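Please supply some protein, with fold tokens.
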Amino acid sequence: MAHDPLWDPSRWLPTTRDELDARHWDYVDIILVSGDAYVDHPAFGTAVIGRLIEREGLRVAIVPQPNWRDDLRDFRKLGEPRLFFGVTSGCMDSMVNRYTAAKKLRGEDAYTPGGEHGFRPDYATTVYARILKRLYPGVPVLIGGIEASLRRVTHYDYWSDMIRPGILEDSGADLLVYGMGELPLLEILRLIKRGVPFSSLRTVPQTAVLLPPGAPVPKNQNWEDFTLHPHEECLANRARYAENFRHIEVESNRVRARRLLQPAGGRVLVVNPPFPTMTEEEIDASWDLPYTRLPHPRYRRRGPIPAYEMIKHSVTMHRGCFGGCSFCTISAHQGKFVASRSQESILREVEAIKRMPDFRGTITDLGGPSANMYRMRGRDPRICDECLRPSCAWPEVCRNLDTDHAPLLEVYRAVRETDGVKHAFVTSGIRYDLFLHPHATPGAAASHGRYVGELVEHHVSGRLKVAPEHTSDAVLRVMRKPSFGYFRRFKQAFDFAKARCGKPQLQLVPYFISSHPGSRPEDMADLAIRTKELGFKLEQVQDFTPTPMTVATEIYATGLDPYDQSSVAVARTPRAKQEQRSFFFWYKPEVRRTLRATLKRLGLDGAAERLLGDKGALPTAAPVPARASRAGRTQPRGRVPRLPSGQGQRSAARQGPPP
């Protein structure tokens, strides 16, 4: 292996003692411990953070997927780092990664060679951190990534059905970085290089620390403080817990956020405000690190890594999402404001993909958390500075939002005209309300008119994904999604464009969620009828999965809307969830009898005739997959279409750098 230049282990960051010795290293500054296999690619957060540390002139090594059930030799093999351990569960919350919405084991672990299970523990960040604190009590432990980020304060955990304290309490770690980790990590490294003790790193933006009993809250004249209800009050009163979330979400989406304080067990959790949205130069620098873009050679005999296979020839053009969907954690982790790469950086990555030995001319995705938010921002930043809205697109697209698609179309053109690129597809989901809304300027409106035509003519591989999520306006309000009428308008535009381009084979793939808070059986009946009448048959549907740090999860946990404390209907029992899910499969003989009984019980005889009767039945509608429920998406970089995920962690590799 060492004689093959392509697979020379020295090209990767070291993972074993032999690899340290090959570099003549007698110590390591920072050791990263990850629940994912090590893939040296910008879609995998551990690689991003490792390469960033390397760029800063420090020695870094990685312990991927250590065995936590034996004598802990994997945690000992590289010795004690000089500065600190960095710990992450990986690109997904470990519980979302492992379990379905029904709390059953998933078919594969997409971030493990061969898709095998058993290579990471439940609540991996906590397990790893506890082990390290036990083995190396004098070495600081820094936690980060999607699992730590979304569990940074008191949160509801679906898998244990408990309100749990912030993860710093459970894990015993010394410091937490939330969100995309480059900027806080660089500040931490800068301070450490200046001689600041790790224990004094209490005022770094975008970090959280649990103060010892009696310790004063660090002073910072630039930040205003806001105190959340204590953890113990959240346990005793879920209305207080729901109220906390409203403040957390508001501060997460503000340009000038307040510092959050939460008392817990005689201690105080301090969550510092985030860094400003990354500039183009900062985000370009993260993608321009010297990745091999390949899995580590240690995995060559263990089979492919599913997540890598899906994203290895894709390009993520931006981070962040201002959609604010109530089931999604992308804005909580990546931020509400979009950070876009330069066209030059995107084209450099295309050239790097072209050099990969298995590239055959197809860029599989030009996307992002929402594929068509590239370069979108407020026209007047002063309005954004004062805005408290969780979404720039709901209840309607903000009049201050510049939805010009021209820069995106220019990138599409540049990529598809690159020598050696035969196809450049868009397989991330798009937001059709961003080019169908009525508030566009004349220039933006012109780009909207071009977008669907160019997308369909050049960039749809066969299926185009969009996410109407539901048909009921009442449920869509809870979801913070636009009216289903927008989807109807987009379907008309899509059908017209594919007819004009002579591509009748192209399919529109709509995704829907069952059992979302606010959804009742009557709403699901409406969804089934409307999608049937549009010619769709839906399959592969999974229930809504509550994941920490989403509005929908707080509603599921409390039955209350965090913003007005109103009651919201929630399907919690397996029977109630199955009843809602069955409406997607009206065309299957084995569920028709049950659906008839359900509709009769609901007094919807007319709906039964439209959905199940002979009149209007669709004999040959092609099945269209509905979405398996979406985690902190999230997510860092790169696109992983339909990976096992929960709402809000829809693209695990997108979730971003770990610590």
Remarks:
- The CA atoms of residues 32 and 86 lie 5 Å apart.
- The first strand starts at residue 30 and ends at 34.
